[in-house]
Amino acid sequence: MNNKIYVMITAGRGPVECGIAVKGIQQKFRAYMNAQNITPRIAHQKLGSIGNAMDTIVFEIDNSDLKRVEPWIGTLKWECKSPIRRFHKRKNWFIKCEKITIPESAKLMEKDVVLQTFRASGPGGQHRNKVETAVRLSHKQTGIIVTASDGKSQHQNRKKAWEKLRSKMKDMKEMAMQQQNLDQWTEQIEVERGNPSLIFVGLKFKYKL
Description:
single chain, alpha+beta, seven-stranded mixed sheet, three-stranded antiparallel sheet, 5 helices, 10 strands, 30% helix
């Protein structure tokens, strides 16, 4: 079971002011998580069309921390005159914060892995060259192949090979998330303009109680 969840703050299809709201509010969200002793990791981010805007940011947090961030889930409202369109009458900007599920497109299962042993080459003495201590793991679905031969025993190399494969699979998952249709997905997000979970005011994004 995956013990990580992803929380996304996005402007959706909103104008650049919503991107400014994302950048300001995500900083407040980080400060909130820090105060709650939650350690987030940025899993994905897309900057906006101007320097002080951000279209989307995705945080990875522990599943056990979900309840503490639930007050943020939903529509977030920013009350402020447009800092880039001087005569624009609109003062209310809406963005969205929600939990998302990243597809397990490359889930690691033992039945999908082919294990092979072979004789390690290079230094290590006669025993190293005669005994099949080296290990090769091949993941059938993705084509990822890893080897480990530095250990003194097959058991050590098997452990190292699995660690390498898990790391490669994690990298592939993160790459898939960044390359998948996150942009198209956010294009489909409908940001509700009523009943915001939280309200922020002004260029300093102060909480409105």
